[in-house]
Amino acid sequence: DTEVTQTPKHLVMGMTNKKSLKCEQHMGHRAMYWYKQKAKKPPELMFVYSYEKLSINESVPSRFSPECPNSSLLNLHLHALQPEDSALYLCASSQEAGGTYEQYFGPGTRLTVT
Amino acid sequence: GENVEQHPSTLSVQEGDSAVIKCTYSDSASNYFPWYKQELGKRPQLIIDIRSNVGEKKDQRIAVTLNKTAKHFSLHITETQPEDSAVYFCAASRANSGYALNFGKGTSLLVTP
């Protein structure tokens, strides 16, 4: 099973709201990632968790807060977002962290900030 | 850091023809080169990948070639079908690279019946 799941599929939130995105994988992968994708652009890496520890934070604003409660789950907490944060948020996982392991993406959460 | 260039940005072919998408990379230490297909509104899907110890890899109608000397790799799709229409992203990375897949800007492929 090479499936990564994400909820919700769509999210509309105001700039003062707090919401969370969820990601789950049951492939026994030890690395999980958050990417942001704007229309007609490639995914941009935001965060990497390796063995449930935050390994990489690609200079992401603090209004995005990741959390890895266990090896199968990854959350992205959102607070005080801006309209320019509207995008597709993709979760991915790989067997291990490191550039040469296959990354499998979830279906994404389409976020609209009003 | 790694810089991946991808061409063309759009490609239109007739059903049954072949399609070729090319990527070049800058970091000679890169050793992993995946290709992702993303249909409209869907997730990027890993369709094929190649590592630097291999020059070519095939999977049914899809093939990828790698020229390490020239630092370029290509995706070849034969006998194209309308369902091949999508955006294709190449990427390059290496071990201990900070985990990043360095993506090209994408190629929008349209296969017309």
Q: How would you characterize this protein structure?
A:
The complex is a heterodimer of chains A (114) and B (113). In chain A, strands 2, 4, 5, 6, 9, 10 and 11 form a seven-stranded mixed beta sheet that branches. A four-stranded antiparallel beta sheet of chain A has the order 1-3-8-7, with no helix packed on it. Chain A has 114 residues and is mainly β. In chain A, a hairpin with a 2-residue loop joins strand 7 (64-70) and strand 8. Chain A is built from no helices and eleven strands. Chain A starts with a strand and ends with a strand. Chain B is mainly β. Helices cover 0% and strands 54% of the residues of chain B. Chain B is built from no helices and eleven strands. Chain B has strands at residues 4-7, 10-14, 19-25, 32-38, 45-51, 56-59, 62-67, 72-77, 86-92, 102-103, 107-112. In chain B, the strands form two sheets. In chain B, strands 2, 4, 5, 9, 10 and 11 form a six-stranded mixed beta sheet that branches. Chain B has a five-stranded antiparallel beta sheet with strand order 1-3-8-7-6, with no helix packed on it. In chain B, strand 4 and strand 5 (45-51) form a beta hairpin. Chain B is globular. The mean pLDDT of chain B is 93. Chain A binds chain B through residues 31, 33, 40-43, 45, 48, 50, 55-56, 58, 90, 97-100, 102-108, and chain B through 31-32, 34, 36, 42-46, 49, 51, 87, 89, 91, 93-101, 103-106, 108.
In short:
The complex is a heterodimer of chains A (114) and B (113). Chain A has 114 residues and is an all-beta fold.
